[in-house]
Structure formats: C-alpha cells, structure tokens
C-alpha cells in the first residue's frame, strides 16, 4: 500500500508546436499556457510536468539551423522561457522530443540550454514514471507513424516524409498566410488527416477568397444542383420516351405564384440545362479518372497512405508494452492531436491531444457546396495520479474561447445549421490495482 497524499502527480501536455516561420510564430494560447505554468509553480501537490513531444515547431523554422533555432525561440518568447524557469524551480519539468522538434535529441547542447530554464530534456523516445505500485509509459508516438518515424533516433540528418511536408508546405503556408483576404492559410497544420487539405483549401477559397459577387451568384445554383441533376436526367428519359415527366401539376402550382413562379421555373430550367451539360461531360471524365487510378495502383506508384491510422498502431503498441511490462497501467502518447482514452487489455491508452487550433469538417445540409471546417480549441492537460485502489487518469480543459465570426462566416453557419461541432473531452478513468479491469 502507498500513501496517495505523498504520491507524485503527473500533469501531461503535448503538441504545442511553438515556433515557425512568420505567421506560424504566433501562439494563440500563450496567455493560457503561462497561466497554467504559473498555477503549477504554486501548487502544493508533489507534481511533475511532462511535455510529451512537439513542444516546439523546429521543422517549421526553415530560416536557421541547429542551435540557432533555440536562440530564436528564446528571443521570440522570453516570457515563456522565464516562466518555465520559475515553474521548473518549484516542480520537475520533463520534456521529450517529438518529430517536429526531433533536433532536441540530435544536439546535446539543447539539453544544456534547456536545463538553464529548469527543464529536463530526456533525449530518448520514451520514459517511464512510477505511480503507486504501477508505472506510466510516455512517448510522443511518432515512432508508430511510418511517415514520421526515425529509424536512427537522434540522427540530425535523418528526414522522414513528414519533414518534407512540414518544411515545404506548412512553413511556406506560414510565410504566405497574410497575402490572403483573411489570414487563414497558416492553419494548414490544424488540418488532420492531411488528405483533407485539398477539401479545406477549396472550402477556404470558396467562403473566404472568392469574389463575393461570384460566390453569391453561384450559391443558388449549387444549393439546388441535386434537384437540377434529377430534372436533367428525367428530362433526358422523357425525350427518348422511356419515362414521361409529370410536369402538369408543377407548372400549375408555379403559375399560381405569378412572377415568383416564373422566376423559379426559369431558375430550374436553367439549372437543369447546366446540370445536364455537366453530367454529359462528367460521365466520360469519371471513367478516364477511374482508369488512370487503376493504372497507378497497378504500377504501385503510391503504396502507402499519406497519413497514419490514428488508432490501430497505438493500440498494438500499447498491447506490446503492457505484455512486456505488466506493471504498466497507462500508455500515454500524443502526435495525432486527438484527445482520448481507450481501454486496452484492462489498462488505459491515453492521447494528450494538442494545444493547436483544431478543425472539424462539417458537410453542408444540402447541395454540392464545399464543406465547412469549424475551428475550436481544446487545451488539454492530462492528470495522472495514484488513488485508493488504482491509478486515475482525467482530462482538464483549460478554457479558451473558440474563434468567432472572423473565421466562420454567416453563410457557413447557415449552410451547416444544426451541425456545429461540440467537441468534448473523455471522462475520468481508473485502472484498478487488481488488474482485472478498468473502472470508468
């Protein structure tokens, strides 16, 4: 038995991605982060803060190399580093490298520089901590992602696929973001999985960058495109004598509406004509694209997906760790930016989420308009502690207002009416000492 009052309490955060070229250097959550660190500075608990990877966005800082990046960080965010020094003087702060700040493991000097701010940099892929009679396994999680895995951890010259994406796409977005009508391109790092980036770009172009007159002229057509396509198909069947359109009742109803009815009739006829042309052109284009895709697959040009499965590799990794180290109660990771708790073999798999803005895709309620990507923040802090009979894992969400109307237009809200996302964090979970199950 242990005295829970004297047992260490672990606060875990990850995926802050602090730093980056130009607009990526803005920290939307700096005020909340400083307040959290100040709170830990004065806590009476025997606490330790674990920063579980990707504290910094070193990949996105393309203008400098090596230790010069640390100099830039301390120059840009002096208040943050001074607060780390103050908090680290009261409680231990442990930092693990992630993939975006893998250079922390590649240069020994990083450990020396961070120690001056009372941060203990562990230049390893994982670390364990004791909690009661059990242990916690901490890792960032990128080693389970084939696109961001380092086969030779700590090698400063190794560059996985994710490195190129972030140095050539994400960092460039930070440099170009202010050129738009609205400063939105920098949020490309919040789009997950990355296969959604083309849809997100189309969405932001349509709702933000497109000439407003053109957008509002196109919206009515796209809203009723499905109806127009149906009318075009049935009109074609009517022409070739397969099926007769029941238009008499519709025409009678529209005639009763006077000028409004005539306008609706004209719009439907025009839309049906355009939809018919698009369908005629689209059918052969579809088969050509499909044939190209079949050929590409046959040659095996693209053998893997761009992004990793956000769950399965981590469930498998947790099972391996739990089997090799039966005393492990919690497998804690980050990387995928999806906060959650999953029960695995009567233990807990915990994802610490991200402090970056998150984007939630929502399809429009009708028509063929681009989807809407709602922004939100979930500033996650995971608290892991010993409790009577086991180990407790609970999420704390540090309050931060979600972006307002400057990011989501009235048009987007109207088109997704009733589909606004309401992300929630998991409830508290407990791993029992009997190891016969978890209690939620």
UniProtKB/TrEMBL annotation:
Annotated ranges, domain Calcineurin-like phosphoesterase: 11-187
The protein's UniProt keywords, in alphabetical order, are:
Cell inner membrane, Cell membrane, Manganese, Membrane, Metal-binding, Transmembrane, Transmembrane helix
Membrane-spanning parts: 213-243, 263-289
Q: Does the keyword Transmembrane helix apply?
A: yes
Question: Could you cite one Gene Ontology molecular function of this protein?
Answer: metal ion binding
One record GO biological process: lipid A biosynthetic process
Region of interest (Disordered), residue spans: 415-440
Which residue ranges have biased composition labelled Basic and acidic residues? 425-440
* UniProt KW Endoplasmic reticulum keyword: no
Q: Which Pfam families match?
A: Metallophos
Entry GO CC: membrane
Q: What PANTHER family does the database record attribute to this sequence?
A: UDP-2,3-DIACYLGLUCOSAMINE HYDROLASE-RELATED
Question: What is the protein name stated in its UniProt record?
Answer: Phosphoesterase
* Species of origin: Salinadaptatus halalkaliphilus
Taxonomy-wise, where does this protein's organism fall, top ranks first? Archaea, Methanobacteriati, Methanobacteriota, Stenosarchaea group, Halobacteria
């Amino acid at each position: 038995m242990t005295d829970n009052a004297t047992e260490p309490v672990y606060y875990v955060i990850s995926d802050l991605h602090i730093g980056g070229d130009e607009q990526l250097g803005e920290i939307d959550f700096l005020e909340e982060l400083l307040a959290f660190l100040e709170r830990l500075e004065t806590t009476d608990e025997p606490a330790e803060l674990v920063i579980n990877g990707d504290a910094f966005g070193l990949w996105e800082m393309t203008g400098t190399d090596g230790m010069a990046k640390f100099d830039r960080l301390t120059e840009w965010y002096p208040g943050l580093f001074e607060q780390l020094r103050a908090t680290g003087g009261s409680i231990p702060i442990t930092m693990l490298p992630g993939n975006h700040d893998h250079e922390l493991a590649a240069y020994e000097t990083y450990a020396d520089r961070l120690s001056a701010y009372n941060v203990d940099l562990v230049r390893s892929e994982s670390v364990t901590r004791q909690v009661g009679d059990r242990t916690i396994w901490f890792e960032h999680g990128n080693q389970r992602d084939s696109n961001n895995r380092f086969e030779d951890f700590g090698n400063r010259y190794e560059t996985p696929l994710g490195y190129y994406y972030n140095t050539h796409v994400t960092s460039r977005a930070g440099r170009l973001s202010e050129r738009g009508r609205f400063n939105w391109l920098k949020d490309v790092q919040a789009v997950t999985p990355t296969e959604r980036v083309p849809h997100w770009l189309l969405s932001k172009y349509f709702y933000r960058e497109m000439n407003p007159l053109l957008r509002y002229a196109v919206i009515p057509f796209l809203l009723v495109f499905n109806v127009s396509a149906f009318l075009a198909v049935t009109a074609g069947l009517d022409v070739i004598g397969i099926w007769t359109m029941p238009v008499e009742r519709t025409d009678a109803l529209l005639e009763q509406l006077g000028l409004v009815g005539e306008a609706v009739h004209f719009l439907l006829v025009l839309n049906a004509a355009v939809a018919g042309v698009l369908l005629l052109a689209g059918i052969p284009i579809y088969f050509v694209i499909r044939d190209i895709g079949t050929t590409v697959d046959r040659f095996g040009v693209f053998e893997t997906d761009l992004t990793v499965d956000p769950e399965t590799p981590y469930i498998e990794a947790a099972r391996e760790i739990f089997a090799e180290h039966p005393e492990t109660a919690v497998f804690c990771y980050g990387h995928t930016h999806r906060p959650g708790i999953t029960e695995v073999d009567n233990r807990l798999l915990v994802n610490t989420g991200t402090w970056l803005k998150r984007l939630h895709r929502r399809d429009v309620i009708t028509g063929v308009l681009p989807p809407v990507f709602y922004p939100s923040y979930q500033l996650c802090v995971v608290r892991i502690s010993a409790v009577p009979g086991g180990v407790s894992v609970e999420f704390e969400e540090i309050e931060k207002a979600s972006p307002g109307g400057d990011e989501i237009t009235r048009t987007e809200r109207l088109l997704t009416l009733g589909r606004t996302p309401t992300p929630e964090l998991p409830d508290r979970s407990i791993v029992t000492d009997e190891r016969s199950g978890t209690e939620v």
